[in-house]
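Q: Could you fold this chain for me?
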Amino acid sequence: MDKEAWKALSLERAIEIQTELRPKVVQHSIHKVEDFETVAGIDLAYWNHGEDEYAVCCIVVLEQKTGKVMESRYSCGRVEVPYIPGCLAFRELPLILETVKKLAVRPDLYMFDGNGYLHPRRMGIATHASFYLNRPTIGVAKKYHKIDGVDFVMPINEQYAYTDILVDGEVCGRALRTRKDVKPVFVSVGNYIDLDTATEVVCRLVNEESHIPLPTRLADLETHRRRSELR
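A: Sure. Below is the predicted structure, expressed as structure tokens.
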């Protein structure tokens, strides 16, 4: 990955890269849910200082069976890649990969606070990052952004109820209600996993404290804590 080239990236070239990667996405899994003994949650938080923009990336690794935190690492730095709509990965990947290098534990699965295949070009951050992480990935977004004008159907008000989100006849993700009486999250395949397995992993990692799965929830809390310290 050439960071200097990414800094001068045009929208046309960014879309071209995403288009080249899309056929390489694998939406099936050779793994069972139990095979993912360790799951890492990834999130970033941003802030401005003068005319410069900074970010911190936090990764929290959990033991899936117990929910025990095994490791937590972070990296921070100035954001040098401009924001291009639909191309968030180009901004976030440098810090993500820097933080991954600090991990003593190599997670079996990475979970992102963001989208994967549920993206206009099927190349959200969870999918794009997978080509550098070489591990199965899942996207779990808190908000839904319409793709080609397609909205989602609200799941019935029962725990683990879901509705698939179809774009041009293709299932790109699903709206999943992880707990009764709470708004859904939006789950999509990142890479090297199927949607049913991804959904089951998310359901297993939700507790009574939040409707957000524990890995990304803890990573989100950690980014806010680190941002407060760093800014």
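A (continued): The longest strand covers residues 38-49.
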